[in-house]
Please model this.
Amino acid sequence: MVFREAVADLNRLRQILGVVAKHGFGDMLDRARIFERLKIRRPHTEQDRARAPAERLVRMLIELGPTFIKMGQLLSTRPDVIPEEYIVALSALQDQAPAFPYSEVVKVVREELGDEPDKLFSEFETEPFASASIAQVHRAITIDGRKVVVKVKRPGIEQTVKRSLDIVYYLAHMVEAIVEEGALYNPVGIVREFDRAIGLEMDLGKEAQSLRTFYNNFRERQTLIIPEPLEELSSPSVLTMDRLEGQHLNEIEPGSQTARTAAMNLIEGFYQQTFEDGFFHADPHPGNFLIMADGKIGLMDFGQTGKLNKTQRSTLVLLGLGIILKDADTVSRLVYRIGSQTRRANLGQLKKDIEETLEDTLEAKLDQIDSAKVLKRLLDLSWDHQIRIPPEYTLATKAMVTIEGIVRKLYPSLEPAIVATPYVKKLLVEHYNLDDIKGGVGRTLLQLSNLLSEVPQQISQILMDLESGRMSVQVNDPDSSLNRKTMRGIGIDIFWGLVATGLLAGSLPALMSFEPAPPAAIWSLVGFGLIATIVTLRYFFTPALRKMRVRHWLKRRWGTKDQDAE
Model:
């Protein structure tokens, strides 16, 4: 069984590499020496070289299948990882797949809900009205007459995705270990993030929980309409929810009264999700919206969501205010603080670059600010300075840019300055709320008062310790552990070098004499050769093996609780 799976994976790997090379990305595989290491002959079937790389990437993902299309959709939400032209191309990917037979639907529903669809529903359409790689959706009516849609997970999808991800993990480890820029782009981290995201998306039970949270958040609000999940007709492989009926965005006349109302509801709804709830829809593309007759927005497909805690929301407020006020110092410090650095960044140079960006991209009037351009430039600068922005921020900014684009199409004459003003005021009031002792200015003043009262006492204590000679300084070298390991390795190499030298010195006289050499001398020479070979190979291959060690390869933890806890 294991051998059969290994052969199938190898064949699938050959197919993937062939498709990658076919669409003009063979040079990248050559740089990673993947064909050489796998003893696979490089295919010479490159096509599409005349097309733009972003277009070739999209065509390649479509040919590779649903798992890779999903990965492309995830990458389209990561402007901190790939250039803008790739973001635009990948955003157009449509997750479509052939429908699976109704007999399979009946089997899944019976196994998950305990009975067949015609017993659980008064009506259940046998033909799906939407089919994607993870699941397909059927219209139905419950026994009590409630119009619903039923999302049924595709049978065997976990095994299909897992098999593809095993191969992608392998390629990512190879690229990160061999290609010089691999560590910076962090391909294994990107694949692991996709692994976690698609694992959550395949669990319809978790989507039902997200849907319930959204429904409760917006039940009393007048902006977004969220379908209510029916828990009694749902499971990890089946999700039943209210059916929304409305118009798609492209069916609404731009600038009409309905379009203007919808645009305002969309802005208000996004503000409520992001800054009030801290739980937002991470994939707000036009296909996930329906516009009701009264202008309210129906929101669908909650497989991808994002969370922002209070500190992160507060940071976004300050970042937005710093951009509007062209405060490069505040913006640079916030970018530096929220990101993780692969090396020590030059904060002064980062501030200078951000200052130039704000001067170049922000016009005098608020309604002339291109949010997408500003945010993209900030992400590019963080990348240039090797500062990795956490996914929560990139998801939120990508969602904001998408919402802004939809609003501009619905309401072309909208003046952002007029719309943004009340939200900016509300954010500032909430951020600097003196009545809230847990946050804002109240917390800042409390911390400042404690600091001012403690500093003189601490300075006095330091001076007294200096005077009495009791002052001691402990230095923590972050590289000390690495240095110890290096010195230990040098000591081991010296030891084995002496052993090898002794073996060689002991065997040479016997081997160079006219009499036949005794077996001990030959074995000594063999031992010398083995030690020299092993030490030499370790010198050349240790850097790559350190990145590709088994512990990293086994960090997938498919479907375990550890995966969710990370």
